[in-house]
Amino acid sequence: MVLDKGTKVNYFLLIVVTIVFIWSVYKPAKFLTWVTEVSPAVVVLIIVIATYNKFRLTSLFYFIITILSILTFIGGHYTYEEVPLFNWIKDEFHLNRNHYDRFGHFLKGLGVLVVRELLIRQTPLTKGPWLFGIATSIMLAIAALFEIIEWLSTKLPNAGEGTKDFLGMQGDVWDAQWDMSLALIGSILSLLIFSKLHNKLLKKLNRLGTVPKKS
Hints:
The protein has 215 residues and is mainly alpha-helical. The chain is built from nine helices and no strands.
C-alpha cells in the first residue's frame, strides 16, 4: 500500500503521541492525578483513530490534537504545578507560581481550529464572522466546562490531595477566570493566524475527494 504524504505525517504524529503517552504512564508523580488529567485526551485520541479512515481530517487538525495530547500527558506525569521547565522559569524569574497550566490553557486555544473544521465540514456554516464567533464561543464553552468539572471534583466524597492537584489553583482564587481568559485569547489568535492555512488544507482535502458533501 502506497501512503500519501499527509498519511505519512499523520502516522508519524501517532507514533510521537504514543511514545509520549508511554513515557507519561511510567511512574507518574501521582497516578490518580495522572488518570484524571490524561483521560479526556485518551478518549479524544481513541475517537480520532477509530474514525480516521471514515472521516479524514486535515493534517493541521491532527497536529493540534497531538500537541494538546502531549501537553496533557506532560502535565499528568508531573502534575501541572511541578513541570520542571516551568519550575525553573518560576525560580529564575521569581514568579509566584508554576505557569505551565496557564501556558497550557493558552495553547488549548488552538483547539478552536478543531472546532472550526468540524463546523465547516458538518454544518451549513461558511467562512466568515459567524463561523469565527461561533467557533470561539464553543471553545470558550469547552474551557468553562472543564473549570466546572474541576470545581465539581472538589465536592466529591473523599476529595483530598489528588483533587487539589487536579484543580491546580496554586492558591490563586482567580485561577478559573485566568484559565478561561487565556483559552479565549488563544482561540482568537489561533483563528487570526491560522485560518488561511486551514482553508488551504481544507481545499487540498477537497481535491483529494476526502471531504464529504454537506446535505
